[in-house]
Design a protein that fits this description.
By secondary structure, the chain is an alpha+beta fold. It folds into two domains: 11-116, OB fold (Dihydrolipoamide Acetyltransferase, E2P) (Beta Barrel); 148-448, 2-Layer Sandwich (BirA Bifunctional Protein, domain 2). 29% of the residues lie in helices and 27% in strands. The chain has twelve helices and 20 strands. It has helices spanning 10-14, 135-143, 145-148, 152-174, 213-223, 260-281, 283-288, 305-314, 329-343, 394-403, 412-419, 432-440, and strands at 26-38, 42-49, 52-59, 64-66, 72-73, 83-92, 105-116, 178-179, 185-186, 198-201, 204-208, 225-233, 246-255, 302-304, 347-351, 364-365, 368-372, 374-379, 382-389, 425-431. The strands form four sheets. It has an eight-stranded mixed sheet with strand order 8-12-13-20-19-18-15-14, sandwiched between helices. Helix 4 (152-174) crosses helix 6. The protein is elongated and about 80 Å long. It starts with 9 loop residues before the first helix and ends in a 20-residue tail after the last helix. The protein binds aspartyl-adenosine-5'-monophosphate. Aspartyl-adenosine-5'-monophosphate binds at residues 191, 211, 213, 234, 236, 243-244, 247, 249, 383-388, 427-431, 433-434, 445.
């Protein structure tokens, strides 16, 4: 007969927390071997734990090692990527190797039991993987992503993105937001443009969601303040260092705003909390990348798009882009440099983009309806956020859709939301891979995607 109740003591008694280990403690550790270094008297075994690497020391005379069958073996018989249980005593240490997280302790091993070995003796040496923009280096890493993620720097990247996502949720929940989960198979793209993936859905054409835009606005009608952390899909045909075909979008939408500045203010407070949390929780990860977190002063500069074109041209910082309906990449870099030099800010807002260049849901500026109450937030020369105030009246949506040649009937459920009443509202979305890579000074956003999707890659 099957067991009636589960019988696990793993979490309660077997999982020992290295983070709380003190000198002199006897400790038992489960972990994978990251590296083995053999010496005359024994050697060092580096263990991979959830939060980083730990050094352990083998003394041939006092440490016993047993294989899966309980046979005694030597340190020479241990290889990388072997799962072990290790027992020993915590000693103080001063470890110089930056990749080792626990640099003030090491474990003097009394016993190791091998639990499971890899099926090859030639496992990929993840410790040797380089960080480089070189295409062939990236290809090798991404082709072997399932294993290359075990590299200490790659592990660090995703601890940082996890911390960013947690801090994002934590802050928003603390100010009354509800987390929602919205569909990614949708009947219409929310952002317009051609970069939408089509797919067959039982004979009907549907799309992968470019963003949760419609659904987060619907969420405002229900909960007033909502957020989502979820994948978004863009059929970007170009292979650049800042675009992915699937990225994680940190989305926010809030009701009862008075202007888009309320949304911008919320985003600044949110980013302050995120930066503070990453500084507190990820010092090891930041050190591994020699990374400096961005400066976010109390007052972040904000320029209208037309002002930026004028300013950069008049100051001789870029060629003439006046009259253009978006920022040129060289302008994005130049205005960020200008904001840093003049306002001590690594962030800069650009507002009032022309209506015809923004998604249809952006509210037009009542003072100049050719412009929208929408913004981009730039950091380190690249956009990390778009946001703004949205239209909240059904008739304004219908008018704008018809002007743009869109068929309102295709957006019935969305329009029905406004038909049934909505408060003034606005929101924004931050690309998780972009913000993570900027925090760590990584130049290719794909490195901050666990399993990147680009025009050439859908596996692993
Ligand atoms: P937008 O299209 O500007 O706005 O996207 C918001 C943010 O998502 C990130 N991002 C990307 N990251 C990697 N690869 C891509 N292909 C990619 N595309 C976008 C960027 C960008 O700033 N609905 C609006 C947001 C809103 O107004 O609330 C939207 O999706 O960091």
């Amino acid at each position: 007969m099957a067991n009636t109740f589960i019988n696990s003591t793993f979490i309660q008694s077997e999982y020992s927390d290295v983070a709380n280990a003190k000198q002199g403690d006897n400790i038992r550790i489960y972990g994978m071997i990251q590296n083995v270094r053999v010496t005359k008297w024994g050697g060092f075994i580096i263990i991979r734990k959830p939060d980083g690497l730990l050094q352990t020391v083998i003394q041939n005379e006092t440490s016993s090692i047993f294989d899966e069958n309980g046979e005694k073996i030597g340190i020479n018989d241990l290889s990388r990527e072997t799962a072990i249980i290790l027992e020993g005593q915590v000693n103080s240490a001063n470890i110089k190797d930056k990749s080792v997280k626990y640099n003030t302790i090491e474990i003097a091993v009394t016993k190791i039991n091998v639990i499971s070995k890899p099926s090859t003796t030639e496992v990929i040496d993840v410790n040797a993987l380089k960080f480089s923009d070189d295409e062939s280096v990236l290809r090798y890493k991404f082709d072997n992503r399932q294993v290359s993620l075990r590299n200490p720097k790659d592990m660090a990247i995703f601890r940082v993105s996890s911390t960013i996502a947690q801090a994002f949720a934590e802050y928003l929940v603390s100010v009354g937001f509800t987390q929602i989960f919205t569909p990614k198979i949708v009947s219409e793209g929310a952002e317009g443009g051609a970069n939408v993936f089509k797919m067959d859905y039982f004979g009907k054409q549907v799309y992968l969601a470019q963003s949760p835009q419609f659904y987060k606005q619907i969420g405002v009608g229900v909960y007033e303040r909502v957020f989502e952390i979820a994948p978004a899909y863009r059929a970007e045909k170009h292979n650049t260092s800042r675009h992915l075909n699937e990225f994680i979008s940190l989305d926010v939408e809030m009701g009862f705003i008075k202007s888009q500045e309320d949304v911008m203010e919320l985003e600044m407070n949110l980013l302050r909390h995120i930066i503070k949390t990453v500084r507190e929780k990820c010092s090891h990860e930041l050190q591994l990348f020699d990374a400096q977190l961005p400066c976010l002063p109390d007052k972040v500069p904000a320029f209208r798009l037309s002002e930026v074109h004028d300013l950069l041209f008049n100051e001789n910082l870029t060629p003439d882009h006046r009259g253009e309906d978006d920022m040129a990449p060289e302008e994005e870099r130049a205005i960020c440099k200008y904001a840093k030099e003049n306002f001590g800010s690594d962030f800069v807002f650009i507002t009032h983009f022309p209506a015809e260049h923004r998604a249809f849901y952006a509210m037009n500026d009542p003072e100049d309806p050719t412009l929208t109450l929408s913004y981009d937030l730039l950091m380190c020369g690249i956009e990390i956020t778009s946001g703004g105030q949205r239209i909240h009246k059904e008739e304004d949506y219908r008018k704008k859709m018809i002007e743009r040649g869109m068929n309102p009937d295709n957006f019935r459920f969305y329009l029905d939301t406004f038909h049934n009443g909505m408060p003034p509202h606005g929101g924004f979305a931050i690309g998780l891979e972009r913000i993570t890579s900027f925090f760590l000074g990584i130049s290719n956003v794909k490195e901050a995607s666990l399993f990147p999707r680009d025009i050439n890659r859908v596996a692993p």
